[in-house]
């Protein structure tokens, strides 16, 4: 069974790979930076709402964060938009990632029904 420390480690790795600061992510989530730090350290359980937002902004599946499925997370991130320069609106980036994930899911469903 995966514990909070492992999930926190995955969140930190995702954030670092995408080049975001804790301040940017905590602002996007609507929480303080110290509160977000508790997610990454495993001291606090990530709320469902925060988990959904984190998955969207990183372009990965919530399930893969919760199960610490690193091979799948790496595959998902290969398709994720990466920041290039200053980040102005993480909500827009998350919406874009969600749109891409939905499109890829639709393509997969279509492919299976051919």
Task: Please give a handful of descriptors for the protein shown.
mainly alpha, 434 Repressor (Amino-terminal Domain)
The CATH superfamily is known as lambda repressor-like DNA-binding domains
In CATH terms, what is the fold-level topology? 434 Repressor (Amino-terminal Domain)
Unreliable stretches covering 5 or more consecutive residues: none
- Strand residues, percent: under 5%
What is the element string, with H for helices and E for strands? HHHHHHH
How far the N terminus sits from the C terminus, by CA atoms, comes to 37 Å
Number of strands: 0
Number of domains: 1
Specify the structural class.
mainly alpha
What is the annotated CATH architecture?
Orthogonal Bundle
CATH domain class name: Mainly Alpha
Q: What's the arrangement of secondary structure elements?
A:
Elements: H1 4-18, H2 22-29, H3 33-41, H4 48-58, H5 62-66, H6 70-78, H7 90-112
Helix pairs in contact: 1-3, 2-3, 4-7
Tell me about this structure.
By secondary structure, this protein is an all-alpha fold. It has one domain: Orthogonal Bundle (434 Repressor (Amino-terminal Domain)), CATH 1.10.260. Helices cover 70% and strands 0% of the residues. It is built from 7 helices and no strands. The protein has helices at residues 4-18, 22-29, 33-41, 48-58, 62-66, 70-78, 90-112. Helix 2 (22-29) packs across helix 3. The N and C termini lie far apart (37 Å).
């Amino acid at each position: 069974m995966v514990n909070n420390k492992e999930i926190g480690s995955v969140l930190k790795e995702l954030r670092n790979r995408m080049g975001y600061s804790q301040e940017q992510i905590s602002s996007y989530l609507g929480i303080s930076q110290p509160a977000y730090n508790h997610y990454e350290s495993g001291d606090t359980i990530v709320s469902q709402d925060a988990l959904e937002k984190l998955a969207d902004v990183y372009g990965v599946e919530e399930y893969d964060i919760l199960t610490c499925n690193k091979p799948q997370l790496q595959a998902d991130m290969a398709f994720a938009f990466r920041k290039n320069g200053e980040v102005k609106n993480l909500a827009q980036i998350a919406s874009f990632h969600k749109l891409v994930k939905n499109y890829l899911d639709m393509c997969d469903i279509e492919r299976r029904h051919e």
